[in-house]
Amino acid sequence: MRRSPSQLGFTLLELLLAMGMISMLAVSLYATLRVAFKARESATSGIAPMRSANVALDLLGQDLESALPPPGVLAGAFLGQHLGDVQSSQDTIEFYCIGSADSLDPPNSAGFRKIDVGLEPAPDGRANLLVRRITNNLLSPQEIQPQEEVLCRNVRSFSIQYYDGTQWYPEWDSTQMGDVLPVAVQVDLQLQTSSDTQAPLYHASRVFAFACHTDSSTSSTGATGTGTSGATGGAGGTGATGGRSTGGGR
């Protein structure tokens, strides 16, 4: 039975069915997008600590590998101090280095600089900030306020160990170690992965060698090769080419 021209169109029942189907499709699409967005947020939050730790270690390693041997006109003592406890180290390190404009952070990495790295409490009080202080004008007759920048956030622990060629030390004072740099350092970072203090921590560790390392005998007599370390009484370092260590310091 055909409809007359005056009866062409959709009935109310047909319109209700169409609207119901469209609503079901919209709800299904919303649920799918919500799952996708939550998965993206979860993946982003999961790799955020790793990304932050890698960037901080890259910048810190760039400074450490270009550290200048003490003492000198534009190079002072190399000082590493161990603070905090076993579960939450808050070490500090102070040294002099030279950078180039081709580095990861050109404005703060060119020329002779004094570097001071340590932890500071975060404004929210939940964790700590890994802060690097940079003093560029080392020949200024007046005291200059260093430039501060945050290398990493949500830091639970920051610890450094120093290798003299035979063993690892929790601290290093070049004025007491024969005015030499360590052969290498091991930097450990522990970051909170969420606001929950019971959540597992992300741990990152790297070993950096010093290109300008010399042992005590080399620095005092100008001789090359191995020597006796005046600080430890053991065998001295092997020089810049053998400074990188792959062994763990823990």
- Helix share bin: 10-25%
Outline? elongated
N-to-C span: 89 Å
Number of domains: 1
Query: Radius of gyration in whole Å, from Cα?
Result: 29 Å
Extract low-pLDDT stretches: 218-250
The portion of residues forming beta strands comes to 25-35%
Mean of residue pLDDT?
78
Order of helices and strands: HEEEEEEEEEH
What structural class results from the helix and strand content?
A: alpha+beta
Describe the structure.
With 250 residues, this protein is an alpha+beta fold. It has one domain. It is 24% helix and 28% strand. It is built from two helices and nine strands, in the order αβββββββββα. Strands 1, 2, 3, 4, 5, 6, 7, 8 and 9 form a nine-stranded antiparallel β-sheet that branches. The radius of gyration is 29 Å and the shape is elongated. It starts with 11 loop residues before the first helix and ends in a 29-residue tail after the last helix. The C terminus is likely disordered.
